Amino acid sequence: MGHLDHAALGWLTPVLSYAMACTGAALGLRCTVRALGATGRSRRNWLLTAATAIGTGIWTMHFVAMLGFRVGGTDIRYDVPLTLTSLLVAMLVVCAGVFAVGYSRDRGRALLLGGLTTGLGVASMHYLGMAAVRLHGDVSYDPTRVALSVVIAVVAATAALWAALNIRSPLAVTLASLLMGAAVSSMHYTGMFAVSVRVAPSGEALPGATAMQFIFPLAVGLGSYLFLTSAFVALSPTAVEREASASAQQPLQSSAR
Fold first, then answer.
1. Rounded CA separation 26/21 (Å)
2. What are residue 196's DSSP bridge partners?
3. pTM for this one?
């Protein structure tokens, strides 16, 4: 059996990946709350931003954590098309979950459907990302731990969406996103501890790209997108703030006349 190291770069990758998951969750929950206060095209755009943020956060979390993944006795490469597919899956499935919540009449059913969809999206993204790993040897999984990781993903997604629907205060949204970040991270590492590798040393070159060639630049790009979008959303006024400023303007205009 190959020796697996999940934090070859020390605490850097677990801490950074957790920060990414929390940022994506915070932005996603904030946009979902905004969407529920909007209508028409504006609601759709907020929901799309929410889904992109959560999907990006989850994917970046997974692959930043993977930068610290090493297997004794073999190099690791990543299949580029499959890695990109896992990003697309994360976006699309989270999008379905968020839209279920944003447009459903029945909140309870929307929550269960959205949580289940989003949770399964997180899990399928994780295992697709793992399927993109190329190394010299055979990878196998412990079914119990895999099942546990899927349950964690579904419960976490449902809890986060519940928070988005029921919580308005900034402190509560922050706590909810820290919780969702922790859940996404624990799902990731539960899934990683389900992995065992039987190394078959070989001199052959592995197909695919190294983490630094491909994963690192993509993670930096998506991470930048998350932080810039967060800043934009944080600075843009809410519907309530816009109404307040409009009503404050009216007395001024009438007195000017």
1. 9
2. 140
3. 0.78
Nearest-10 Cα torsion for 233, 183, 220, 214: -140
Determine the Cα angle at 62 with ends 59 and 65, to 5°.
145
- Helix runs in the chain, H state only: 12-36, 40-66, 80-103, 107-131, 143-166, 170-193, 216-235, 239-256
First CA to last CA across the chain, in angstroms? 83
Q: Which pLDDT score, from 0 to 100, does residue 30 have?
A: 83
Whether 250 maps to a domain, the answer reads: no
Query: What confidence tens digit (pLDDT) does each residue in 101-114 have?
Result: 888 778 788 888 88
- Structure tokens that stand for 184 in this block: 């996404």
Q: Which residues face 119 on adjacent strands? A: none
> Cβ distance 134 to 80 under 8 Å?
no
Contact, 107 vs 161, CB < 8 A?
Answer: no
**C-alpha dihedral sign at 157, 161, 167, 169:** positive
Instruction: Tell whether 246 is covered by a domain.
Output: no
**Structural domains counted in the chain:** 1
Backbone angles phi, psi at 67, to 5 degrees: -60, -25
Neighbours of 206 (CB within 10 A): 16
Residue range(s) defining the domain that contains residue 177: 4-240
What residues contact 94, with CB distance under 8 A and at least 6 apart?
Answer: 28, 51, 54, 55, 58, 117, 118, 121, 122
Out of 54-68, 107-121, 213-227, pick the least confident. Answer: 213-227
d(CA 124, CA 118): 10
Residue (of 20, 46, 51, 48) closest to 33 by Cα position? 46
Does residue 252 form part of some domain?
no
Q: Is 81 among the domain residues?
A: yes
Between CA 167 and CA 82, with CA 18 as vertex, the angle to 5 degrees is: 110
Number of residues that make up the chain: 257
